[in-house]
C-alpha cells in the first residue's frame, strides 16, 4: 500500500525528495502524458532517451503507482543522465538544492517545448487571453480556410503562472501600464517574527505582495501637466515623483509550488539557516492575492480600496511583520486563514483529511482559487550539510493517506505530522469549487 523508494546515489536526496513531491501532482503527470504524445512516432522513439519529458514521466508514473514497478526501490540516475544531455552538469557528490533542481526541470521542459517547430500567427494572441477557447468558436472574414490555432500557449506546464506589477504615481495618481512576469514557483521570504504570534503562510504571502514606495521615478503624466501650464516653446525637465509599486498574481497556476526562503546572512556575512516553523494548512485560498482588472471607477476610489486591502489582509495581524488590530469590514472577513484558523469551527474541518467541505462557505463566498496540499519537502540540517525528506499524498483513491519518504525508506504519516513539519517547499494543487 506504499509507493517505491528511491536509491541514494551519493547525496541525491535533493533529487529524490523533489521527484516524490512532483509525483503527487496528478495534473503535472497528465500534462507530461499529453506533452510526450508527440514522440510516439517511429522516428522519434529511437531518441526518446534524450527527452527529459519522457524520462521524467516514466519516473513519476512509477512513483505514483500508475505503472507497477519491478523493484521496491527505484534508480533515478537516468534523470541525471538526460539533464547532462541538456548541458546541466549536476554532481551527485556535492550538496545540492531541491528548489534549484525544480527550476532546472521546469526551464529544461520549456526549452524542449520551444525546440518544437511551430508556426506563430495572430490568433495566438487570442488563445493567450482565453486558453480554454475552442477552434470552432473563432470566425473571421476570409475567403481562405482558417489556419490551425497553435497550441504554443496551451502547452505551458501547470506550474506556470504570471505576476503583475502595478505602479501608481503618488502625486497625480496616474497608473502606469501593468507589467507581467512569469513564475514557476513563489519564493517567499519569511518576515521578522513578532514575539508571541505564530508565523503563518499568510504572513509570508502578504509580505511578498505588500506595496513599496519607489522614489525618483519619471512620471509622464506629471511632466505633461507641468508642460500644459507653461508657455509654448519652453522646454521643461521631466518631473520625478514617488510611485507606489504593488505585486499581485495575474495568473494562478494549476500546480502551485511555494518556496520558503530559509537562507539568511549574519552580520559577518556567513550563511545561516532559519529554522522557525511557518504554519500552513491542508487547504489554501489564494483569492485575496489575485490581480483583478480595475473597473470603471475613479483612481481615487482605487487607491482607497488598495490602501484598505493593504491594512486589512486575510490575517488579523495586518501587514506582514507589522501587527495591527485592524479587522476586516463586516461581511468580508474570511472564515479561515491560510496557516491559522480564525475560529474553532474552521479548525475542525481544516485538520480533517478528505474532501473540502464547501458547505462551510456561503454560496456568495465560495473561494474561486482553492488549493489542496499534495506534498511538503523538508530540509533537516544546516546550510553546509543536511538531508531532504518529503511528506506526500498516497496516489489514487488513497489520497487522504499521507506518506513520509526519505530515499529508500517509506512509511505512513498523519496529517498532523505533516502540518507540524518545518516546510522548505510546499506543493499545492488547485481544486475546483462548487461554483465551477
From TrEMBL:
Keywords: Hydrolase, Protease, Thiol protease, Ubl conjugation pathway. Its EC number is 3.4.19.12. It catalyses: Thiol-dependent hydrolysis of ester, thioester, amide, peptide and isopeptide bonds formed by the C-terminal Gly of ubiquitin (a 76-residue protein attached to proteins as an intracellular targeting signal). GO terms for biological process: protein deubiquitination; proteolysis. It comes from the Eukaryota. This is Ubiquitin carboxyl-terminal hydrolase. One of its GO terms (cellular component) is cytosol. Residues 295-337 are annotated as: Disordered. Gene3D superfamilies: Cysteine proteinases. It is an enzyme of class 3 (hydrolase). Residues 316-325 have a biased composition (Basic and acidic residues). Belongs to the peptidase C19 family. Residues 297-306 have a biased composition (Low complexity). GO terms for molecular function: cysteine-type deubiquitinase activity. The gene is Usp30. It comes from Daphoenositta chrysoptera. Residues 4-431 form the USP domain. SUPFAM superfamilies: Cysteine proteinases.
Amino acid at each position: 500500500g506504499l509507493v517505491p523508494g528511491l536509491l541514494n546515489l551519493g547525496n541525491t536526496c535533493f533529487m529524490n525528495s523533489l521527484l516524490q513531491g512532483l509525483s503527487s501532482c496528478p495534473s503535472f503527470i497528465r500534462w507530461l502524458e499529453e506533452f510526450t504524445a508527440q514522440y510516439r512516432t517511429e522516428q522519434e522513439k529511437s531518441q526518446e532517451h534524450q527527452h527529459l519529458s519522457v524520462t521524467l514521466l516514466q519516473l513519476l508514473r512509477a512513483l505514483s503507482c500508475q505503472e507497477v514497478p519491478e523493484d521496491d526501490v527505484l534508480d533515478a540516475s537516468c534523470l541525471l543522465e538526460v539533464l547532462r544531455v541538456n548541458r546541466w552538469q549536476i554532481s551527485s557528490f556535492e550538496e545540492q538544492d531541491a528548489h534549484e533542481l525544480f527550476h532546472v526541470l521546469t526551464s529544461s521542459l520549456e526549452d524542449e517545448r520551444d525546440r518544437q517547430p511551430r508556426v506563430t500567427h495572430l490568433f495566438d494572441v487570442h488563445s493567450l487571453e482565453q486558453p480554454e477557447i475552442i477552434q470552432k468558436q473563432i470566425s473571421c472574414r476570409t475567403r481562405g480556410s482558417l489556419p490551425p490555432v497553435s497550441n504554443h500557449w496551451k502547452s505551458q506546464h501547470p506550474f506556470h503562472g504570471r505576476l503583475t506589477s502595478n505602479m501608481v504615481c503618488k502625486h497625480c495618481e496616474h497608473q502606469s501600464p501593468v507589467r507581467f512576469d512569469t513564475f514557476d514557483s513563489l519564493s517567499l521570504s519569511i518576515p521578522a517574527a513578532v514575539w508571541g504570534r505564530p508565523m503563518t503562510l499568510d504572513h509570508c504571502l502578504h509580505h511578498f505582495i505588500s506595496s513599496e514606495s519607489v522614489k525618483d521615478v519619471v512620471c509622464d503624466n506629471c511632466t505633461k501637466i507641468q508642460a500644459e501650464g507653461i508657455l509654448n516653446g519652453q522646454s521643461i525637465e521631466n518631473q520625478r515623483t514617488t510611485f507606489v509599486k504593488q505585486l499581485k498574481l495575474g495568473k494562478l497556476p494549476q500546480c502551485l509550488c511555494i518556496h520558503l526562503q530559509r537562507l539568511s546572512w549574519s552580520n559577518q556575512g556567513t550563511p545561516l539557516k532559519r529554522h522557525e516553523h511557518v504554519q500552513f494548512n491542508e487547504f489554501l485560498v489564494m483569492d485575496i492575492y489575485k490581480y483583478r482588472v480595475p473597473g470603471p471607477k475613479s483612481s481615487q476610489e482605487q487607491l482607497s480600496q488598495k490602501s484598505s486591502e493593504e491594512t486589512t489582509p486575510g490575517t488579523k495581524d495586518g501587514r506582514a511583520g507589522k501587527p495591527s488590530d485592524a479587522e476586516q469590514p463586516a461581511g468580508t472577513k474570511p472564515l479561515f486563514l491560510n496557516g491559522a484558523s480564525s475560529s474553532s469551527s474552521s479548525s475542525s474541518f481544516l485538520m480533517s483529511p478528505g474532501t473540502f467541505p464547501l458547505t462551510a462557505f456561503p454560496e456568495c463566498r465560495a473561494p474561486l482559487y482553492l488549493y489542496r496540499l499534495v506534498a511538503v519537502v523538508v530540509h533537516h540540517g544546516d546550510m553546509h550539510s543536511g538531508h531532504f525528506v518529503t511528506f506526500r499524498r498516497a496516489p489514487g483513491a488513497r489520497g487522504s493517506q499521507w506518506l513520509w519518504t526519505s530515499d529508500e525508506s517509506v512509511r505512513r504519516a498523519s496529517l498532523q505530522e505533516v502540518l507540524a513539519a518545518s516546510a522548505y517547499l510546499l506543493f499545492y494543487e488547485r481544486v475546483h469549487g462548487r461554483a465551477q
